[in-house]
Write a structure and sequence with these properties.
The chain is of the alpha/beta class. The protein is 33% helix and 20% strand. It has one domain: Ribonucleoside hydrolase-like (Inosine-uridine Nucleoside N-ribohydrolase, Chain A, Alpha-Beta Complex). The relative contact order is 0.17. It binds beta-D-ribofuranose and calcium ion.
Amino acid sequence: MAKKVILDCDPGSDDAIAIMLAMKDPSIDLLAITTVNGNRIVPKTTENALRVVQFMKSKVPVYRGCENPIFCNEIPGRKPGLPRVTLNDCHGDFLPLPEARITAEKEHAVFFLVKKFMESDGDISLASVGPLTNIAMALRIEPRIAGKIKEMVIMGGGHTGANASAAAEFNFYADPEAAKIVMDSPIPKVILPLDATWRACITEEQNQELHDLGTPEAIFASTMVQKRIDNLKVNDVSEHNFQLRHTPGTVASALLYRYDNDRAPIHDALAIAYLIDPTVITELADANVDIDTYGGPCDGRMVADFHNTKKFWDPITAKVALNADAEKFVEMLFRNLGKK
Ligand code: BDR
Ligand code: CA
């Protein structure tokens, strides 16, 4: 039976591909999309989600979520203004799809999440690929939803890497308090940080093959991916220039890993890929995960304690992915987006 999934997102080029993958793969039953402030303000991320739904000729409902991060600029020293990342913009304001003629549901995403999970039999998974504001708010309103979420797959954070500041990944940096509330909750969590998503890049050559599959979904996805690749070429200070110290099989080893300029990650789609086939993640480690919320240089940073140094008083809070099978991921995209 197909997995019931709710997707919380902030489209966003990679969010758009995640939505399409969830709609196309028969093993996923996408129940709803909730939107959040993130890559853009929530009216824009909602419009973009609706554009994708319309493009896919889908009936999946879209619920508009939070306009602002929970705490936002209340922390002294925190940089003002959100979204706080513009350096490496591979999204644009609006997805290059026809303007939405369909509309979002009237109910707010947070109330929808509370109601849907509380009424469920605990059989719905949650994929979260934007800032965690909606989920944290839902947890504050009704903490019992934690026991109703079957599994939460989160794209966010970085163990060895960062892309929004020197220390933090975008989704956690955009709302550190929300990320902390979710980490501290007993929801069963799998986190896919940059360490995993950077290992699941699609190359320019593969992207051309994706385009050549010829379906509207494949062509649109490949346009998005090309934008991501081109953007990384221009911003050579970005994630492709990052040197990830990591050897498969160990967490703290020192093999130098370097990205080439001819590829890009599609971060959010990996969360859906994991729900379709968990073997797309090749290393998953238990950790106690915390988030820095102090407003300083490490603001929003994910701190994953794989050594579980505090094991006598801090529980394991999540499984954290550290590596991925890029070939399997790309094959999954081809198989689904190329489907007539
Ligand atoms: C995350 O940040 C956003 O820009 C992407 O959509 C993705 O969810 C990657 O750090
Ligand atoms: Ca996103």
